[in-house]
Design a protein that fits this description.
CATH topology of the largest domain: Protein Transport Mog1p, Chain A
Structural class: alpha+beta
CATH class of the largest domain: Alpha Beta
Largest sheet: 8 strands, antiparallel
Number of strands: 10
Number of helices: 6
Distance between the termini: 136 Å
Oligomer: single chain
CATH architecture of the largest domain: 3-Layer(aba) Sandwich
Radius of gyration: 43 Å
Strand content: 15-25%
Length: about 300
């Protein structure tokens, strides 16, 4: 009797079970469900490069954090509290932010470029006066009325008595229109008076002889050139937007000369005189102080007044 197959497909070859104690090769092990194949081992040379990159990245992160902390610390303190960055106080005064007054409708700004006839200041004279610095007190002895205007006689009190009559004639018959003034006293005892004399035209300013080398003031009958100012100006080019003695200025078109009372004149006070000519305006600045008038605030006052007129 013949044997017949009970199934049409040939049976699969049976895989022999591993013997006990014999390790199964990895290639023959079946991976678990969902497992990710392990990455190939990194060669030693590539591993060193990776570790070096990680160290540099960590160092950069630490440096950035430290730099941010230092920057925050610097911006959070005053400059004067940082060693090496502090600015030594040179005695200058703290003035308000300067701004030129608004002009009347249709008026053009004054041009102090030497072209006669185009040097008229149309702004109110009181608006061109330098404001008093912070911490100062108004000069109650200055006889200024509405809009800071003063009379000719009040202005002439700054001069020696025997020269007032001649100056008064010059002012009344040589085209003077009005005088504005402002005065203050700072905590160090410096008394400052600023006068602006407006003339009918720039040419009339030439006829005023009350501010110059031969000027005789009531507080200083004898004056000499301010050598400190002369030394500073000799080192500066005559152009605008330069720095003179640390102050940003535009001196083009403004004729400036400074004088001081010599120490040999005696007395317990010193007087300094600043003369500025800008177009149709003559500025006269007088500072007095017991002992000696400080150089920096005197120059600072003259320069800032020049900015308002130029």
């Amino acid at each position: 009797m013949t044997e017949q197959n009970t199934s049409d497909a040939a049976p699969e070859a049976a895989v022999p079970a591993p013997e006990a104690g014999v390790p199964v090769p990895e290639a023959l092990e079946a991976p678990e469900a969902g497992a990710v194949p392990a990455a190939a081992p990194v060669p030693p040379k590539d591993r060193r490069k990776l570790l070096a990159a990680l160290r540099w990245t960590a160092a950069a992160a630490v440096f950035a954090a430290v730099a941010s902390g230092v920057a925050y610390g610097i911006t959070g303190v005053e400059r004067t509290d940082i060693p090496g960055l502090s600015t030594r106080d040179d005695g200058r005064w703290t003035y308000p932010t300067l701004s030129k007054p608004a002009l009347p409708a249709g008026a053009a700004p004054a041009r102090t470029d030497g072209s006669r006839g185009a040097e008229t200041h149309y702004a109110p004279l009181s608006g061109l006066l330098l404001p008093a610095p912070g911490g100062s007190s108004p000069d109650t002895g200055l006889k200024a009325g509405q809009d800071q205007l003063v009379s000719v006689d009040a202005f002439l009190e700054e001069y020696a008595p025997d020269g007032r009559a001649k100056l008064k004639v010059e002012l009344e018959y040589e085209g003077m229109r009005q005088i504005a003034a402002r005065g203050w006293t700072t905590p160090d005892g410096t008394r400052t008076r600023v006068y602006l004399l407006r003339f009918h035209a720039a040419g009339f300013v030439d006829g005023f002889h009350g501010c110059g080398y031969g000027t005789r003031l009531a507080s200083a009958p004898v004056l000499e050139m301010d050598e400190a100012w002369s030394a500073v100006r000799s080192k500066q080019p005559v152009v605008t937007d330069q720095h003179v003695a640390g102050f940003p200025v535009g001196l083009a078109g403004t004729d400036i000369s400074l004088y001081r009372e010599p120490a040999a004149a005696g007395g317990d006070e010193q007087t300094k005189l600043g003369c500025l000519r800008a177009g149709d305006i003559q500025a006269v600045i007088v500072q007095t102080r017991k002992g000696e008038v400080a150089t920096v605030p005197f120059h600072q006052t003259v320069i800032l007044q020049s900015q308002l007129l130029s």
